[in-house]
Amino acid sequence: MIRTLFCLIVILFIVNCEQVIVDEHGIFELKNGTDNHKYHELTEILRKISILRGINAVLEWDQQVMMPTKGSGARAEHLAEISGILHERETDPKIGELLTSLESELHTLDAYEAANVKLTRKDYDRKTKLSKDLAEKRAKLSSEGFNTWVEARKTNNFEMFAPILTQWVALQKEIANLIDPSRDAYDVLLDDYEPGTSGQEIDNIFSQLKTELIPLVAAVRRSNSQVDDSTLLEQVYSTKTQEELSRKIASEVVGFDFSKGRLDSSAHPFSLGVDTDDVRITTRLRNNSLLSGLRCTVHEAGHALYEVNLNKKYKGQTVQRYIGVAIHESQSLFWERHILMGTHFWDKWYPHIKDLFGLKASKEIMFKSVNKVNFDNLIRVEADELTYPLHVILRFEIERELFNGTINVNELPKIWGERMEKYLGIKPSNDSNGVLQDVHWGSGYFGYFPTYTLGALYAAQIAAHPTISGWVRENDYNSIINWLRDNVHSKGSVTMTSEQLIKDATGEKLNPSYFINHLRSKYKSIYDLE
Amino acid sequence: MIRTLFCLIVILFIVNCEQVIVDEHGIFELKNGTDNHKYHELTEILRKISILRGINAVLEWDQQVMMPTKGSGARAEHLAEISGILHERETDPKIGELLTSLESELHTLDAYEAANVKLTRKDYDRKTKLSKDLAEKRAKLSSEGFNTWVEARKTNNFEMFAPILTQWVALQKEIANLIDPSRDAYDVLLDDYEPGTSGQEIDNIFSQLKTELIPLVAAVRRSNSQVDDSTLLEQVYSTKTQEELSRKIASEVVGFDFSKGRLDSSAHPFSLGVDTDDVRITTRLRNNSLLSGLRCTVHEAGHALYEVNLNKKYKGQTVQRYIGVAIHESQSLFWERHILMGTHFWDKWYPHIKDLFGLKASKEIMFKSVNKVNFDNLIRVEADELTYPLHVILRFEIERELFNGTINVNELPKIWGERMEKYLGIKPSNDSNGVLQDVHWGSGYFGYFPTYTLGALYAAQIAAHPTISGWVRENDYNSIINWLRDNVHSKGSVTMTSEQLIKDATGEKLNPSYFINHLRSKYKSIYDLE
Questions:
Q1: Which one of B90, B212, B300, B399 is the catalytic residue?
Q2: Are B91 and B127 in contact (CB under 8 A)?
Q3: Which residues in chain B land under pLDDT 70?
């Protein structure tokens, strides 16, 4: 009530006629080709659902960035309430009826509209095929699993975590079987993150990577010209100045529009879309590390660019949504790895950054440092571009084997150690920096890991596209932004699969050789390999 | 979706098991005396409604403090969606049924429970007695009226605004008549802001004030010892240092707990309660004015203290809510006027503030300046403690006369000028700084103005209480905070009227002589009157 009272005063005192005007006219009218009233009935239901998702986004952003610590109890109630209302609307039988009748009229719809119906069906089935019991069982295991994982990692106790893992594999198999009994359970899970792919396809790609990367990592390790970043590390970099630089680069390089978003700090950087006109990112700045902050900012700004450029014509519609986690990751990795971590960026930006901080490190050192390989690193999230895929491949292989039953949970610590040694030449000293290091499995996310590396592959293929690589050389960021908007972002999910999207955009289906060549040529030059 | 995706990662990576645990156990269990299951059915409905209000509060706070400008369109949709869901739940016929059956069993409930039923009935009737048409008519006029007011004030065009005012008076009479045909329309409107009072009662009080204040203002104006604050005004005060001071004083004086709230900046300072454990205030700091920022901070922190101390036992219940706008204002004015603007505060804090800014002004000048009377000020929101009530009385009288038909809208500019001259000895040069200066009427808020001055009266009566005045002299803020919590904040609305609350708290019904004596003695000493 008090908020009503004071916000009344605030809302009225504040010059926000805009708010009022928007309130009257701002609600987006879909202008679709079809005059099928059932279709428009469906889009209106979807639009309303997307408004609730936007509300949820504000609550989650506030929770991570602004909320006072003791507000967490009330916030948990806010989020539970919204997700209750959301679930009710997302599983509304009316959606099912409309879909059924529209599915017989798909030929009357244009490509976006037809995709909208098909994608909504997919969402609707995944939500409604689960019994209330099963959904609750999953929710319960998800929070229990997360808490157990936190405790197990803290106390380096895999035995504590093993039963959770066993339950998850069983439960996810059960769920996958309900969603699509005709496919492998693991493939059904993958579909949530990379639509249209399969474990086998990914395995084919990852096998090529392994064959190339394991010797490359070994060669880099043996190299006599290791990167010396001591001049960089001995300096202190004011976080205030880093923030200014972050804002400048987010806006001048990645085109982050501060009238449509915010950049704040948080312990764990993330990007979050409230709306295409309100996309917020966070970064993490430390005064002993200039490059990690820059990488965070550019990475999240890359994600944000995708959200800002989603096709407004399909606002709130399933087809407007990004095509998958892997492609989303490719948009952040493109800017982080192919722009920020490339030589051309440093040609352009080095003088400014040098002035800003009185940099001691040379331009060459900056470029080499941001690409430096850390051979002794056991932790995926801290891995460099070269070793990261091997961390991912190890997890992907273990997930598949768990689901097809060729290994069992208790063997994981042993298998983890052996493969780390085989792939990266290092062995974890304990399970906390080994099999227990990632949050995903405790919360039931299986099939998510591959997307980190698939994203890297997509990014490399886009960067290798002749048109793009020219713009990268010229630091012509605007042309890149426009190309990405037209060929990736604005497409939403109309292609139904990432494979089709990348084919339309680059003229070729996903081809790992672009990523491999990118790594080979870059690390050959940095580490002076023959 | 992207937010789901990234917040998934965020929520999981962030150490917020707390969030999860709270999610499981944090939902507040009402422990009421009665075992009446209908009563608990009602309280559960109310608790759910209060969660939605909390969500609405986060959206409004974000809109005012954090949201990027172009996010306003989506935010308007978020707020419209939530208010739609809220309206649906607040007018749920189930509430009516439960109330009807509980009203026959009031004797089985304790005082808080009985008040909870009565207050919920009051809310429910006020929401359900309006037809959908009438509610929409009001909403439409409210936004049209606000926009017209903005334009009219900008262009100094009262004729443009007059029709809105005429429509509002007619509409509010119609609404008041539906709510309670047995009472004067204006009294029904007053009841929204100061429950249990009447225009006649307020008029009796305000008449005494007028009789005392008009000559007092005149005497101060004639005084030969005017306040010279030039040494204060010639300095520049870093807003960063002001912010530190604001935080220190909010927490060490008013007891603002930063684990349960935030202090930010906004163009128009406000206080907003998301939950008793998440109460947020904003302030406005300008480097050319040290005192106005301090006053904003302390004022809003006073409001926040009320919200934080509301009785958790009745979380989400109607009876937990503050008793009225006037009492709420008294809690902010108590800290602003009787602590910050008093001599004892400066005895304790002057040395620290002097060091912080290298103050040139003496302690005496600081005290006099914060209380300085600005005779030529035509604007209510910029008025000092002494002249403010006369601005309010003028508006209150005009409102009453508009509603009982003794004046009509077109006369307002003339009447405004005459009374400003009579009460304050100044005349507006145009309508923009006269009758068009306030936001309230354009948006249909009639009966709100008196609460500013009633709040000042309540604050003065509390400050004059022997126990309190002793603590004020000793700067014993904690004892004051505890007393206010036990005698005002935690009472919520159990007393049903502000009159009963102040009587229980101070042993006497509202008595304007405390306020009058406070002003007389303070301004006699500052302006050296005989």
A1: B300
A2: yes
A3: 1-32
